[in-house]
Write a structure and sequence with these properties.
Layout lengths: L6 H33 L1
Length: 40
């Protein structure tokens, strides 16, 4: 993280966090789908 923490650095970090969150949500959805198939 850049010091001082600038608006630009904040925007870049937020973009990275949203990308990571999106990937986590995709992973969780895939796990749910696999679990549903395993239950059958």
């Amino acid at each position: 993280m850049a010091i001082p923490f600038t608006w630009q650095a904040s925007l870049e970090l937020n973009a990275q966090l949203y990308t990571a969150l999106g990937q986590c949500n995709l992973d969780k959805a895939a796990i749910r789908k696999i679990e549903e198939v395993r239950k059958k």
